Amino acid sequence: MAHAGERWPIGDQPARGASLRSDRGQADRDDQEGRLGARRPLAGTWDRGRRRAGRSGAGSSERDEVILAAVLRVHLLYLWQHRRVLHLRRPRRFSEWVQHRKLFDRDPRLPLLTDKVAVKALVASALGDDWVIPTLWHGRVLPARPPAPLPLVIKARHGCGQIAFARTPAEWDAARAQASGWSQTRYGRWLDEWAYAGVTPGLLVERYLGDGDTLPVDYKLFVFGGRVAFVQVHLHRATAHRWIVMDRDWVRASPPTHDPDPSRPATLDRMIAGAERLARDHVFLRIDCYEVDGRPLFGEATVYPGSGLLPVVPASLDRQMGSLWRQAREELGF
């Protein structure tokens, strides 16, 4: 369930007619700066990539080609999705820092965090077994019969957005067919999400946490430099999926909509403390949690939210998160 909505925007949809003039003005200035300096970020990034890959020894030209292809791909995808030039040499927005991480951050801790089976041991060690949703089964091919009583959740261990719910035998059969291709492919290559490359492809099965067709609220905590700054609240994920961003003090950070502010979860303080413990010494992580039967549960850790290719609403929130990312890097000595 932690994957539902993974590829949705960071903020929520602005109310119809809501004024975002100040954001648009800043966005126009940013876009103008990007157009004027469009060649410089790519050139600077490519030069650094060449130095990292090395210019001597067998295979250097092949490495250069791989680096250049990745840089071009990231720039073009960002331009296509956001309709603005990517500032890769000096990222200013959250969405730009995600692109920077994809190309340059090779922190060896990241693959473990993206492995949805292996990360549970890390969470249990840091926070305790009661935070972890038990894995009932994992492997490459789902068995013909459910490994535990229905209802169940089926996920890919090596990707995101790959999830199926089995509440009945017919849904289990459908999930087997749907998941059959998940474990046959490597996730993240086409979006240059390096951390997924080393995760063993496979599937896992967990107990279903919902009530009938209703899924639990998904709380996605954005942690910069070990401190939670925002919580993205995902509502009605199975029917009318929408989301609202609150700050850590539970003040709305995204634009007004027809939805009232979501209720503050009773376990928010525990969620924040747990997320900050897991993300300690990291520049940025997103820690997803649920509140079930009065206690917090860990869902997943995300290192590339939305691959940085989806809009952050309002634009000022994108810049605010980008500033927090930069500050975290400076504080951690990057």
The largest sheet has its strands arranged as 7-6-5-8-9
Quaternary organisation of the protein chains:
single chain
Largest sheet: 5 strands, antiparallel
Order of helices and strands: HHHHHHEEEHEEEEHEEH
Mean pLDDT across every amino acid position: 85
Distance between the termini: 34 Å
Number of H- or I-type helical stretches: 9
* SS-based class: alpha+beta
Shape: globular
Task: Characterise the protein shown here.
With 334 residues, the chain is an alpha+beta fold. The protein has a domain at 21-104. It has helices spanning 21-36, 39-53, 60-82, 94-104, 110-114, 119-127, 169-179, 268-278, 315-331; strands at 135-139, 152-156, 163-166, 203-207, 218-224, 227-235, 242-247, 284-292, 295-302. The strands form two sheets. Strands 7-6-5-8-9 form a five-stranded antiparallel beta sheet. The protein has a four-stranded antiparallel beta sheet with strand order 1-4-2-3, with helices on one face. Helix 2 packs antiparallel against helix 3 and helix 4 (94-104) crosses helix 9 (315-331). It is globular and about 50 Å long.
Short structural summary:
With 334 residues, the chain is of the alpha+beta class. It has nine helices and nine strands.
What's the helix and strand layout?
Elements: H1 21-36, H2 39-53, H3 60-82, H4 94-104, H5 110-114, H6 119-127, E1 135-139, E2 152-156, E3 163-166, H7 169-179, E4 203-207, E5 218-224, E6 227-235, E7 242-247, H8 268-278, E8 284-292, E9 295-302, H9 315-331
Antiparallel strand pairs: 1-4, 2-3, 2-4, 5-6, 5-8, 6-7, 8-9
Helix pairs in contact: 2-3, 4-9
